[in-house]
Structure formats: structure tokens, C-alpha cells
Amino acid sequence: MIADRRKALIGFSGAALSLACGVSAARADAAAALKVQGLELPKVAVSIGSYAPFVRHGDLVFVSGQLPLKNGSLIAKGRVPAEVSLEEAQAAARQCALNVLGAAAAAVGGDLEKITACLKLTGFVACDPGFTDHPKVVNGASDLIKAVLGERGQHARAAVGVASLPMGAPVEVEAIFSVRI
């Protein structure tokens, strides 16, 4: 039953995904949610600058900006919408969010159930000056976070347009999580 719904659930809310998995939206099992979508947490990406991929301070985890890297390569490159379509940018934001979750998991010993809430998500979109659909792009990241974490994934957010991003990426996403100590 879950496998039959996999395609229909991609991009849906955490509540919808949680119902399909047979768990409550408030405590959706993150590992099951990832499995339903055919996703695996990536290893933490190597920093391309003088910074840490995440910092844990008390019950907070700050995840540095994550690019849409998969197996070490960008899944899209360029500015939205001139070189990257809205749909491609949303998929890139989704990959950024998966990388954010990978870093957050590393910060808590690999157990996403230790995350009590995603507090804030910030998405940066490399785009043409007239582009105004930044929120639609960053929804790709927000939707994945909520689908994986359920109600724990509901967050405050900013979606910002920028002239360029590292490596020519179309999207970069950073996040702040609260966690169990």
C-alpha cells in the first residue's frame, strides 16, 4: 500500500505522508517517511570554505547552507528561470533540504527522531532580477522537511533572491533545529 502511494506523496505535506505511513503527523517516523519517498540521508557534504557544516549549541543545531549536491555534483546549475526552470529549482531546493537533514542527523548521532522542531529555514535562490517566485522555489525544501519530520517540520522561513551562489548553484538552504539533549 505504501509503495503504491510513493509517487502521489512526493511533495505533499507531512500530515499526508504520516497518514500513509500509519503514524501520527506529530511524531512521524522520519526514517519511514524517507523510505516511502525512496530517499536516503546523504553523508554530510564537505565544506567548500572555512566553516563547519553544522554547529550544535545546547539544544540547537545550526546547519550551514547546503547546495543541491547529489553524489558530489550539483543536480542543477544556473539562475532561475533563465537557465533553470521553476520545477528544476524546486527539485534542487528539495535536494538541499535532504542535505540539510543529513547534516542535522549527523549533529544528533544519526537519529532524526532527536529533532524536536525545525525552527527556521532560509532559502537563497540565484535568479534573474525580475524573478519573484522565490517562495515557490523554496517550497521544495519546506515540503520535504515537513514530509519527513511531520509537525516537527513546520517552520518559520525566508526565501531570498540573490545574484549568484557557490559553484553556480540555483538554490542554497540553511536551517535551525531544536533537538533533545
Class from secondary-structure proportions: alpha+beta
Would you count the extended β strands for me?
7
Summarize the amount of helix as a percent range.
25-40%
Mean pLDDT: 88
| Pattern of helices and strands | HHHEEEEHEHEE
Count of separate DSSP helical elements = 5
The global form is: globular
Q: Over all CA atoms, what is the radius of gyration?
A: 15 Å
Structure overview:
There is one protein chain. Helix 2 packs parallel to helix 5 and helix 4 packs across helix 5. Helices cover 34% and strands 24% of the residues. The termini are far apart. With 181 residues, it is of the alpha+beta class. The N terminus is likely disordered. The strands form 2 sheets. Strands 1-2-7-5-6 form a 5-stranded mixed sheet. A two-stranded antiparallel ribbon has the order 3-4.
In short:
This protein has helices spanning 2-9, 14-21, 30-36, 86-107, 134-149, and strands at 54-57, 60-66, 69-70, 73-74, 115-126, 156-162, 171-179. With 181 residues, the protein is of the alpha+beta class. It is globular, with a radius of gyration of 15 Å.
Tags for this model:
alpha+beta
Please write out the topology.
Layout (H helix, E strand, L loop, with lengths): L1 H8 L4 H8 L8 H7 L17 E4 L2 E7 L2 E2 L2 E2 L11 H22 L7 E12 L7 H16 L6 E7 L8 E9 L2
Parallel strand pairs: 5-6
Antiparallel strand pairs: 1-2, 2-7, 3-4, 5-7
